[in-house]
Amino acid sequence: MTTHGGFEPVFCTIVPPHVLDKLAQAEDSSLAGPARRTLQRDAFERTQRRLTTVIGARAAAAAAGGKPQRTIHDARHGTDLPGHKVRGEGDKPGKDATVNRAHAGLGATFELFLQAYQRDSIDGNGLPLNATVHYDRDYNNAFWNGEQMVFGDGDGEIFLDFTIPIDVIGHELAHGVTQYTANLTYFGQPGALNESLSDVFGALIKQYTLGQTSAEADWLIGAGLLAPRVTGTALRSMKEPGTAYDDDVLGKDPQPATMDDFVRTGRDNGGVHINSGIPNHAFYLAATALGGHAWERAGQVWYDVLTGGELKQQAMFADFATLTVKAARERFGDGEELDAVSKAWEQVGVRTL
Prior knowledge:
The protein has helices at 17-24, 29-55, 97-117, 166-180, 188-210, 268-271, 277-290, 298-307, 317-332, 336-347, and strands at residues 12-13, 70-74, 84-88, 129-133, 142-144, 149-151, 220-221, 236-237, 246-247, 251-252. By secondary structure, the chain is an alpha+beta fold. Strands 1-5-6-4-2-3 form a six-stranded mixed β-sheet, covered by helices on one side. Strands 7-8 form a two-stranded antiparallel sheet. Strands 9-10 form a two-stranded antiparallel sheet. Strand 9 (246-247) and strand 10 form a beta hairpin. Helix 5 packs parallel to helix 7 (277-290). It is globular. Residues 1-7 and 52-59 have low confidence and may be disordered.
């Protein structure tokens, strides 16, 4: 997506196109078939997203105000959205574990942004949170379409149920936060920043929910999503970009950790899911240098930049890094926070202006 000023939602998936492209080339049709159908469905939904930006999105329901307002729908393996309502706010958990996980994940995301950053839902004004589960058959993805969350069940061979990792839910909803704030262009370095911010807050939501310190966290995105046959631990690693998987079907994780290995490609909107490893690693370095709960200091700096109004839609890595140094100084002074943030960007090869 390329923005041309103003508000423009984007269609964002958790599984990068390069992963599905590789899987679609598998000799085993039971693996290639679901991947190809997922790519086709993603292309259709991406087109629908563009049409919605032209004709206008549906009006949102009334805001709850300081409390989550969650609604979970069941697509019943179809593709009509939002599907059949199966759980609303205040309803007790049912027998469907997928529904329950989606409901809990939406709540955990709401909780982190409210408690840590005093943000009332993803738009800051109590926006109701809607999700659809059991989308399509063997659908190997989850996405934010600018209005709601959608989760596939996976094919069971490569990917499991996409509601299993809470950071997947947090990642996709964080795209909504970016949509309502900096609205970063979804291409090249701005797009990689867009993806990285979703990984950062997805990781923080998991850590907040588990009560983990930065030292205790695994810094993996999508741990528990890969099926047992896959040689890998997750979709991405913020601690060690490029090491999340190395599989005979999926190939090797292509993420770089520093600018020395920056990938220049025209695919995946200029490599937004690949080069996001660089700012991801910078956040990991800053957070672990500071210790304690990552959402309190490093996360606060990243949130300040995302929502502060100075981050431009076309921001490059150096622009974002410079703003984090400024934000660290403004919030915490010339102390260890400023030092940790500055050194983190230096270590990944991004200069601050």
